[in-house]
Write a structure and sequence with these properties.
single chain; alpha+beta; six-stranded antiparallel β-sheet; five-stranded mixed β-sheet; 24 helices; 52% helix; 17% strand; elongated
Length: 786
């Protein structure tokens, strides 16, 4: 029954004492000598040798860890039974090899920790020395090799078992003694002597199996494995119980030490409990959320300052009261009273910390939306002794959530508006352009001319509505140009007050300065203000519009907008309506704030955004029952405003200028060509950017270049204006290009010069606007693109 060891408590070779190192080396050397001396020189009976080697390996796995205080431990296996069987059947030489196979298996498989190489070598060498001594003892006493009988092997087998036990346990015990510096006799007596019975049983079973095999009774020999396995299981259970008892003793000692330490800590904790309780009270008071602690009956034990403020109950009044009396809340949807019993809050809520939203009704009947969280209070044994209820006012969070939802809907509307703007403006372009052509082709006195003028104005209003939608949805990047404020006011008045019961009076200075602004957005500003004025007078009334030139001597701020000193055009719109309460004046420009039942609260917010983007100011004065005056100021321009109401003049003379038009919509291309022909230009049309580049290249080669190029901003599947202008500039750096788009919010429209364009036009455009843009482009200095 071989015993292998992994050595001392520490696994490293360097940790061994010098004497132990010398001993290990000596045993390894002796083992090598034994292997060399006993190494067989003939062939064994192959099936028998193989079966015995396998049996030795299998029984080597049947091992138990000896109760020796070593890091990797020593193991006791029942492989000696197979080794002794091999000794009797095939002789000492081949039995040595069988034993070595079992020793290697015992050191390598099913071990608690991997053995270092020197320890495996020591165990194998010790097994070689042991088997050599066992073989010598067996043969010296007349032991024979198969065929054998019980009488022939009885005495040699007894001496062989004794030799194996003494040599094997002695080698291992000596290694342990030298490594741990303990007496050898004590180690052998306490740790190995008790296992002599297992050696006797296993050895006897092995000898009995050898005799049966020699007689050919293989199945009877197989039965001898039963007592061998029984020995293994007996010692496994026995040693397992010893390990359990040892662990129990160690655990008892540890628990005793922990108990003593716990008693000491408990005394210290008891002394600090009063101070800790005070710190807990201070911490609860400083928490921003409301916190209420109760016992199992729902009686309030603690309440912090935030809970006092939210419930309206003071600490002195709340302590000792039932929770349902102090903390009254209702379901936000059904308005039913919520159950606030301890069982209802921590029992039905599921896992501790589950949150619930409700409406808290304070003592003064003030209602606040809250989010609450109840969790059980447990003692050291895990028993529920009360409940902790935390809650907080979520009014601001709900308001922010609602604002985000509205903003999301607003962004969706912006995407929808941007998607349809291009197609809608192309359709409106065909209608508006043809009306402009028809109107310009007939005498002004004709009745049809008046109708066409009205239709054209209707198209202009439709265009303003489209641009207003885009400005509302995307924030409105202004496309600035020099405009006359008087004309903008007239247009906005016509849009906002036509068909209403409100009369408008004008007091506009005749020399009102022009401003640099986006005329479409300017119309939207004044239209919003006029609509608000009209709605404040449901029974009708008078709106007074005043325009004047002012000069601010110092910087000025209004409603978070600031301007520096300079010249401004100020427009005021005064009504005699119901007025605005004083508490609402600071919020009228907030998004979604409205005092009207149907109002969206976006009109003044959009107006504020446009004025801010133009570098202006906006102010309001109002008295309930008297009326409201809204004032907007825009920086004055140093340029003269372009007059758009002059008569159309068709270009005459030799050499009509050539204009190249690129647009993906056939009706728009045809209309643009007709309008250009009417204005005295030769027009050529193409449907893509690549075609425009090719036509422009041929024109340069024919010495008949284009005077101007009109490029559509977006062409699906092809080059748009941005890409086309880059290639045209490569052919002619002085190209005069006009970017045209039905989507005025693009940066190529608002900052067209940054992209190399000489001008920008928004679809739909009138004949007047086309002529004015071309005249400005033709007369402006050549723009070099770098």
């Amino acid at each position: 029954m071989p015993i292998t060891t992994s050595g001392p408590d520490r696994l490293e070779w360097q940790a061994l004492p010098r004497a132990a190192q010398c001993y290990v080396v000596a045993v390894i050397a002796a083992g090598i000598c034994a292997i060399v001396a006993f190494f067989p020189h003939n062939w064994p009976p192959a099936p028998t040798f193989a079966a015995l080697a396998v049996a030795s390996c299998v029984t080597s796995i049947w091992k138990v860890n000896l109760p020796i205080p070593l890091a990797s431990g020593s193991t006791l296996s029942v492989s000696y039974a197979a080794n002794l069987t091999a000794l009797l059947l095939i002789g000492p030489q081949w039995a040595l090899l069988v034993a070595l196979a079992g020793a290697w298996t015992q050191c390598s498989l099913c071990v608690k920790r991997s053995y270092p190489a020197y320890r495996t070598a020591f165990s194998i060498a010790a097994e070689a020395v042991t088997m050599a001594a066992t073989g010598v003892a067996y043969t010296s006493l007349g032991g024979v090799v198969s065929p054998i009988t019980f009488d022939a092997v009885a005495k040699p087998t007894v001496f062989a078992i004794a030799a194996y036990f003494v040599v094997n346990t002695g080698l291992v015990a000596t290694a342990i003694a030298l490594s741990s510096r303990r007496p050898l006799a004590r180690i052998w007596r306490e740790d190995f002597l008790w296992s002599v019975s297992s050696f006797i049983v296993a050895g006897s079973a092995g000898a009995f199996a050898a005799v049966l095999i020699a007689r050919g009774q293989l199945w009877m020999a197989f039965l001898t494995t039963m007592p061998v396995y029984l020995v293994y299981r007996t010692y496994s259970v026995f040693i397992g119980r010893l390990d359990d008892e040892r662990r129990h003793v160690e655990e008892t000692r540890r628990l005793h030490g922990e108990t003593v330490a716990a008693l000491v800590k408990a005394r210290e904790s008891e002394q600090a409990l009063a101070g800790e309780n005070e710190r807990l009270t201070v911490m609860l008071r400083s928490i921003g959320d409301g916190v209420i602690a109760t016992d199992l009956d729902g009686t309030i034990l603690k309440i912090n300052n935030a809970a006092e403020a939210l419930t309206g109950w003071s600490r002195e009044e709340a302590l000792g009261q039932p929770l349902e009396l102090v903390f009254q809340n209702v379901d936000p949807d059904t308005r039913k009273r919520c159950a606030n019993t301890v069982g209802g809050l921590i029992g039905s809520a599921g896992a501790p910390g589950t949150r619930r939203s409700s409406v808290l009704v304070a003592r003064d009947l003030t209602e606040r939306p809250i989010e609450e969280c109840a969790a059980p209070l447990r003692d050291g044994q895990g028993r529920t002794i009360g409940m902790m209820l935390a809650f907080r006012d979520i009014s601001d969070a709900l308001r922010i959530q609602e604002e985000r939802a509205r903003t999301g809907r607003l962004e969706s509307l912006g995407l929808l508006a941007g998607g349809i703007a291009h197609d809608f403006n192309n359709i409106l372009m065909s209608v508006m352009g043809n009306i402009s052509l028809a109107r310009a082709s007939m005498p002004h006195a004709a009745a049809a001319a008046t109708a066409l003028s009205e239709a054209e104005q209707a198209c202009v209003r439709a265009r303003q509505i489209t641009w207003q939608l885009l400005t509302f949805s995307k924030g409105g990047v202004p496309v600035r140009k020099t405009v006359a404020v008087g004309r903008i006011l007239e247009e906005a008045t016509s849009l906002a007050l036509r068909g209403t019961n409100v009369i408008c009076t004008f007091d506009v200075a005749p020399d009102l300065w022009p401003i640099e602004a986006d005329d479409a957005q300017l119309v939207q500003v004044f239209t919003n203000l006029l609509i608000n004025a009209q709605q404040s007078m449901p029974s009708g009334g008078i709106v007074t519009i005043r325009g004047e030139n002012v000069f601010e001597l110092t910087g000025k701020s209004q409603h978070a907008l600031r301007v520096e000193a300079g010249a401004f055009v100020r427009v005021s719109i005064a009504d005699r309506g119901i007025g605005i309460p004083r508490e609402h004046l600071s919020r009228i420009f907030d998004p979604y704030f409205s005092t009207k039942h149907r109002g969206s609260g976006l009109g003044l917010a959009t107006t504020y955004s446009i004025v801010k983007n133009h570098g202006g100011l906006i102010g309001v004065e109002s008295k309930p029952g008297v009326g409201t005056t809204m004032e907007v100021s825009f920086p004055a321009s140093a340029l003269s405003a372009h007059r758009e109401d002059r008569a159309l003049v068709v270009a005459a003379g030799h050499g009509r200028p050539r204009v190249l038009v690129m647009d993906d919509e056939a009706p728009v291309r045809t209309l643009a060509a007709n309008m250009l022909e009417f204005l005295g230009y030769d027009a050529e049309i193409v449907d893509s950017g690549s075609a425009a580049v090719e036509r422009f290249r041929r024109a340069l080669g024919s010495k008949q270049p284009f005077a101007a190029v009109m490029l559509d901003l977006v062409v699906p599947g092809e080059m748009g204006a941005r890409e086309t202008i880059d290639q045209l500039a490569g052919l002619d750096p002085g190209v005069r290009a006009i970017v045209v788009s039905g989507y005025a919010q693009d940066s190529a429209i608002s900052s067209y010069r940054d992209f190399g364009f000489a001008a920008a036009m928004n679809k739909p455009y009138t004949l007047h606007e086309l002529r004015a843009t071309l005249e400005n482009v033709m007369t402006s200095p050549t723009c070099r693109i770098h």
